[in-house]
Amino acid sequence: MNNSDLIVRYLYLGTDQPFYIQKNRPFDFDEGCRILAPIRTLAEAAAANGDDPAVRKAAEAVSLKEQPVDIIVRVMNSGSLVRNDECLFVLAFIARICTKPEEKHKVYEVVPTLIKESKDLFQFVHFYQTLATKSAGKGFGHGMKVAVTKWYDKHSAEELAKLLATDRGWHEWGHKDIIRMAHIKLADEAKMQVLDAACGGKGVKRPAKAKKSETNDEKANDDLKDEPQVKSEALNMFLRMKEFKRVNDAAHACDGIKNYQYSFELVPSQLYRAAPVWESLFPRMSYRDLVHAALVLQDYKLLKETDTPLSVAYGKVLNRMTSVTESKIHPIFIYQVMRLYEERQRYLNAVKESIHTNNNLALKNSKANPTVMKQFYAALNQSMLNYQRTGLRYLVTLDLRSKQSKKRVFGNRLMSCQAAYVLLTLPMFKRESHMKILSFTDHPEELVEVDLTREMDFFKACDHIQNHASKKTKVKLTQPIEYATENKMPVDVFITIVDSLIRVNPKRQSPVLSLNSYNHTMKQKARYVVVSLSRHQQDLHHFNMKNTKGVLELVGCSQETPKVIDAYVKHHFT
């Protein structure tokens, strides 16, 4: 594999090996710098101007089919990334490491358009400052100041007012810090008033008092004319939002939400216990936020076991099936929240949840509201149709053992392996035209078909899979490939899902050789995806870990897992 392909893999997986683990991964600076070493080598060669033979030889060994900045633009615009951290790090790395002005300028040119949210801006600045060297210093250079200024200037005055009032800081950076660091000055007076107010000013500059010693009245009058006297509508909006965040009365909060369409982020935390405030917010919340709101509402004891006006109103907004479709939420997300709500919990993390449970012991003695659970279940089944059809030919093989109805998924303690099988396969099966689902048996050379139907809902599919489960299975990772070869079946994607890869493949053998043989025989470009649900380590061993193509190993199951699989089977990365 060339260096460009490795960089693209890093952007999607966070590593240069064909392995993805589902967990909240803190960003690894050392790993990023190691993978981006070829970019540093080219920068050092450019700085040396070919005078150092060793540096020149190392630079000649670097193979980039595409410039890194062009790669970042293409990948971020594709919308197939799980997170933007790696892309932002590469941009900051190039801006700090490269010595050629044109290369730095290319980064600063794309930053205003690529970065969409404040959170990404804060993270980019964090990376940029962390990578600063002693020679370069930690200040913003001219190019960085221009890029940040353009980012703020691309927003309208009203948009600036909203994001400055609602967005919180990230990585110890906030809008105030960046505005002051970059010395931002915009031509639009309304925008500048908002920025000034956000940074601690009044939003409108007050006329300077004339000094006693000043006798030139005409000069003083000219100075007063230059000072803005009228507050813009954007500034008034910003000041209203800041005032709203200090409201203590639920009635006033409801009026503000209805009159000015204020979002949940602006509501003071002391009003989270007020049911009328939530009823005012429901029509204005995105569907993802509505689903997650169940966990907040149960903590404040607003969703009781018996129906109340609030639970009925919440059930109605959950039942908006058009919103489920428009949100494109994967059913795994709804299932996670539904299970947390059903178990009267809030966090998937065991440590966080133990603290939460100790602080909310009364929740354990209550039950979930039946109306809300019914709407959750309806939304879960509707979201099964949110999967975007790829048109590829799939052969999915499951390791169905009866014990897996109780075995938990890594990183998702409320999801069984059986539920993960259904949540990963049924949405694909409902949308794809060419998909076959098989299961392993107690004979390693035999596969049997799992006859799911597209009309099945979640629980019926779970029961169907449980009825097909065996007490014991013998798994051979290459068996699906051999099955396709024997039946002369053209396949674009092989997906094998097991509970523990090390259990079924103790020798850690990779199916890459069998896959290459199948592709050569059938003249295909098939890819092989292995999902190990309960493991937390990389188990497949390839002869060359970095240069292996065609096989991807995933660990755990979350709403990110289908997105990674989708990007891989569409050949967005290797």
Automatic annotation (TrEMBL):
Keywords: Cytoplasm, Metal-binding, Ribonucleoprotein, RNA-binding
InterPro entries, per the entry: TROVE2, TROVE_dom, TROVE_dom_sf, vWA_Ro60, vWFA_dom_sf
Annotated organism of origin: Aedes aegypti
Protein name: Uncharacterized protein
One Gene Ontology molecular-function label: metal ion binding
Biased composition (Basic and acidic residues): 211-226
Sequence segments annotated as region (Disordered): 203-226
SUPFAM superfamilies from the UniProt entry: TROVE domain-like, vWA-like
CC annotations in GO: cytoplasm; ribonucleoprotein complex
Major location category of this protein: cytoplasm
Subcellular localization, as worded in the UniProt entry: Cytoplasm
Family of the protein in this entry: Belongs to the Ro 60 kDa family.
